[in-house]
Amino acid sequence: MDLLTFLAASHSRFHAADLLAKELAAAGYTRLSESRTWDLAPGGKYFVTRNGSALLAFRVPRRDFAGFMLSASHSDCPAFYVKENAELSGPEGYARLNTERYGGMLLAPWLDRPLTVAGRAMVRAGAAIETRLVYIDRDLLLIPNVAIHMNRAVNDGCKYDPKCDTVPLMGMGSAPGTFRALVARAAGCRAEDLLSADLYLRPRQAPVVWGAADEFISAPALDDLQCAYGCFRGFLAAPDSASVPVYALLDNEEIGSRTKQGADGAFLSDTVERICAATGRDRREAAANSFLVSADNAHAVHPNHPEFADPTHRPVMNGGVVIKHSVRYATAAPAQAVFTEVCRRAGVPVQHFFNRSDMTGGGTLGPISITHLSVETVDIGLAQLAMHSCYETAGARDTDYLIQAMTAYYSSSLREENGVFTLD
Which one of 141, 175, 203 terminates a domain? Predict the structure, then answer.
């Protein structure tokens, strides 16, 4: 599965986690259940999911392990969430959907483009309630702009009112219950068996590679599925080391991660603790010899607005992995040095990002994760444009740089003793 295939099939966070789970199963990884005892064998390969939108995979070394080599990226992206009673009737016979914003969105790119919905549904199946993925594979919705004749000042700046300006249009004169019936059909059930759903608007435009030398890639959700994919491929490709490699795909980063499947939940720390318990390893000693790569995309210098970049830290697309620095990130000198050395050994170029001194950036997984699992952490990403748009742009070659770096990282083992770090 290449990046374009992964992006095209990741219609929602639930689809992305499901795709990775299926690939892990095909590669011989055993699926674990959080509700059952874990019997872990030396040399075993395992994965576990939570909420259908977060996933952790790991391998147990055949010998006593030093610690954990972890990475974390996220499955969610800013989008419109479809409300429970979604159908809006009128005016003048129009049928629309009631939505709310999820995450910090660039609103303008959502307008005047074909959209659909994707996510999951909870379905009554006899005595059980099943989770089913939903993707309505058709051009179903569109958020129409107001004509310039009716808003002559629109090109001088527009403030969007989400309760009216970004409401998607679905049809004309549609019968009540039409949307529910469409969702039920996509979930493979009767409308009366559709109990609930988590659905998001989704652009219909496919991922593309473009540019004079095919140097760019554009797609929905590059932040953060590009990092999720690159870390995953490195995890699968790496040979065994003296540490436990752990791949984490978490959820809800765009709204603060404060959920059971987010970085501010206990999914990552719970899994580490269960691995230590099942293998007889002391958790605190293992954590002292552990490392976390928090992988979440970074801002590239904008071609039309280079003034927004810091004067001495100006990442470019296709320039390699970006180490991210800020008082809001986890990167400190030891972690920067360790990951820079990993990249040097892998032959991967490294760039650095700081916000311009009068601007603040967004948060990331790293500082949140290490409040639950105290390990050395570096925040990294790949340089991109239009972050939090519904259709983002990044460097086509940077994914391979990340795969190379993460393959080398997961092949390594770290030991720390009084500020001295040994990278094997």
Answer: 203
